[in-house]
What we know:
By secondary structure, chain A is of the alpha/beta class.
Amino acid sequence: xxxxxxxxxxxxxxxxxxxxxxxxxxxxxxxxxxxxxxxxxxxxxxxxxxxxxxxxxxxxxxxxxxxxxxxxxxxxxxxxxxxxxxxxxxxxxxxxxxxxxxxxxxxxxxxxxxxxxxxxxxxxxxxxxxxxxxxxxxxxxxxxxxxxxxxxxxxxxxxxxxxxxxxxxxxxxxxxxxxxxxxxxxxxxxxxxxxxxxxxxxxxxxxxxxxxxxxxxxxxxxxxxxxxxxxxxxxxxxxxxxxxxxxxxxxxxxxxxxxxxxxxxxxxxxxxxxxxxxxxxxxxxxxxxxxxxxxxxxxxxxxxxxxxxxxxxxxxxxxxxxxxxxxxxxxxxxxxxxxxxxxxxxxxxxxxxxxxxxxxxxxxxxxxxxxxxxxxxxxxxxxxxxxxxxxxxxxxxxxxxxxxxxxxxxxxxxxxxxxxxxxxxxxxxxxxxxxxxxxxxxxxxxxxxxxxxxxxxxxxxxxxxxxxxxxxxxxxxxxxxxxxxxxxxxxxxxxxxxxxxxxxxxxxxxxxxxxxxxxxxxxxxxx
Amino acid sequence: xxxxxxxxxxxxxxxxxxxxxxxxxxxxxxxxxxxxxxxxxxxxxxxxxxxxxxxxxxxxxxxxxxxxxxxxxxxxxxxxxxxxxxxxxxxxxxxxxxxxxxxxxxxxxxxxxxxxxxxxxxxxxxxxxxxxxxxxxxxxxxxxxxxxxxxxxxxxxxxxxxxxxxxxxxxxxxxxxxxxxxxxxxxxxxxxxxxxxxxxxxxxxxxxxxxxxxxxxxxxxxxxxxxxxxxxxxxxxxxxxxxxxxxxxxxxxxxxxxxxxxxxxxxxxxxxxxxxxxxxxxxxxxxxxxxxxxxxxxxxxxxxxxxxxxxxxxxxxxxxxxxxxxxxxxxxxxxxxxxxxxxxxxxxxxxxxxxxxxxxxxxxxxxxxxxxxxxxxxxxxxxxxxxxxxxxxxxxxxxxxxxxxxxxxxxxxxxxxxxxxxxxxxxxxxxxxxxxxxxxxxxxxxxxxxxx
Amino acid sequence: xxxxxxxxxxxxxxxxxxxxxxxxxxxxxxxxxxxxxxxxxxxxxxxxxxxxxxxxxxxxxxxxxxxxxxxxxxxxxxxxxxxxxxxxxxxxxxxxxxxxxxxxxxxxxxxxxxxxxxxxxxx
Lengths: 527, 452, 123
């Protein structure tokens, strides 16, 4: 026979000793797919470029003698190197595309790729904000259509589209409230904010010049209506209330809260961060509120992008509509779309409090959000909130025997389930549990927020997770929770399998290194 | 519904685990009278990809895309060629669908790119440090004014007349509520910037002087004297850069001793997108770092001593400091910052300098060609890639008519300053590497037709 | 020299008209690693209870109130480079600022060491 025996071994030798993972050292320090990537400042060169450009015309420059004559010291990479640099870095990130992302109040739902495709149509992506309005009628109509969707979904008569993010939307709402009160000659000084609020609420009110006072919560994790009523008075400009709130609960007294605030001459701001729990099923306008921002990157699936860009349109009641910021889009009777800016506002929008941003807001997010809404429709959006709430309650009831759920007895939760660290073994914390979840292949939940619950863990699965995915997550969470309660010391040093072990935040804050410095400068600084 | 994985059977199983008869039982806390009995009326039902695509394409088609015709608009947003790999990089799901890097062990990708971004921005601006980005240039500019108030404990900001009118407008809106005092003026059609006037306006009550560089009319002038005078009065110089590519050709504001430098980063990597999302750039001198708004990424080590990155100095921020925070900002412009840094990395210093000179010299050629037209004169002695033409007619209607003829001629000062009749004849024209000689000829011909 | 304590976990050493103020060892332990201290400006006139300084850990920023009224005459510059002094030596080298007392009667309302210890034990 022609016996061919060359080539690779097809079977592992018997009796091979397999050492524990992590005990084998490599020359590079890398571990197969887990590869460290240097900084561009260590690998690039100011003379290298990944871009080829044509020759500039041979004319004298006219830079007024201000030529940049000193080195800029920004290194370049070829395209091949750049693609690899960012691809390698990307693999050190957790993301929705990688797995369930249970970050409470952040609504990390799947980001449909049709949104991305639509946002890149040249008719949206390659138009300038100052083109004559006749040349951008489709863009203005897109903004108009999205505005109509938002008004219909919230049951509110007006919307400001330009705010750049949720916190910017809050600012927009608070400025409108202040303008409305000033317009009626009733300057007030205080904004009331529940203790459980997002930090942006008090920061926003202070940024707009208000004094901020807390409203206490009751034992059920909700706004204490009586305490609120007792505090209302002629100095209170308004309240900022998150509904559903940051404990994951609906505020059943919302209408009564709104009425009480209105009776006392104030106005009601609703933080719409948690709109995903009620979209398509409840219209916030029916709750008596005056303003609410909507995070398009939460409820309407525009990508979080590693921390932005967001988009935070704000819906307004009749009382606040006249004070909405510029610019905005109007439709004429002839079906033409008209951009209301500073000059045209004088006709019939003289109360507008003015401009908050250059140009017209986050168009790239508008196209994505409108694509998402059209995809879901009224029926799909209702299903979104129902599935989001169903998934969260499923997590709540699957965990409450093991993790303390401080408000579980208050009834069902909305789109997120809240737990505390009560019952953990001595010395083990929510942070340890979170880092243990990283080893299990998950991004942790929101932790230490809201502040009203000790060692808070806020889990929001969102509606785009399958039952199988949630069951697997619950299994992991139960395992880590059991270890936290049993006092498993290994949790304290978790994560063990991530691209990095726990990072020293104290060192980072004591001696901030915010930009790369050449190694010799490091040496000098150390001397 | 293609985005919703639960089946009716799953839902029943899960309700059984929960102990609820129906999903309605989960909404018991919501008063009955505010719950809708079915899908919201007046909205369409769900639709497949093809139908949605058709709807969106119809809207997109009803716009004149810049790439389809001669295009000369700037004034705070610039059309540059973005390398193909940039869009590929930002569409990596691990970047696109990640959250703010609050769990640094599994977010080193985002964090390292932010650290590289901060370093690039600081070097581009010629300052010590930069943050991880702001919403856009206009909001970054206002945040800088607030920061100067915190540092100097004074409330009067002097704004150059060359500052983008939208940036001025944003500052005016905010100042009305914060009780800051702003000194503002509209520009005049003069070859010189208002640098000399600004010197006279600085006094011991001034917190900062805000100067755009190049300014709204495309003019560039040395800011050193303004910095010197400001510092003599213990005030700060804030420089505003709306076209970062310019800094590949002209001196960095930090080299003229600016204390805070802010800008719009849209030019690199981001694209026009009808005004947003863009990316605000924010840098300053080291000594002011704790007064900075926004996120900061810093270097540290992990438990094994390996280099790593974290968000740091977060005690300045709203989620910890609440009403005492330096700003209410809760986001950066992450993905746009990634696009900016990837584009900058592809360029490198050499590419940036080449790109800048290509822009500049094309603009010089275009300016001279257009200035030959009868009834047109060039305002600027010096400029980068944008200059102001003074026509012998009101410019705004001309720009509108040319747009109908598929020539996007530039930004009329009438659009930017509708109340300033003295500016009505001004046209701001931007020329970048994407502008061809044929485009310039098309604009020249169209203008000749209008002015004949 | 005599040492006083407040229920806001500040200590005050008084020598003649001059008072030195810092935070207590108990406080630094509760706060964890101190990363930054913002001291008041020299010459600042503080009323009892005013915000006088800020002490920052990684996770929180806490206001330090003026335990007594007076004019700030000196601040501890060493904290700028070495905020960790507050952790290692809260009640000695990690002092925050000195002021000239404007109303010595305010001292009567403060606690002595024994009373403060009892106060902390009761927390």
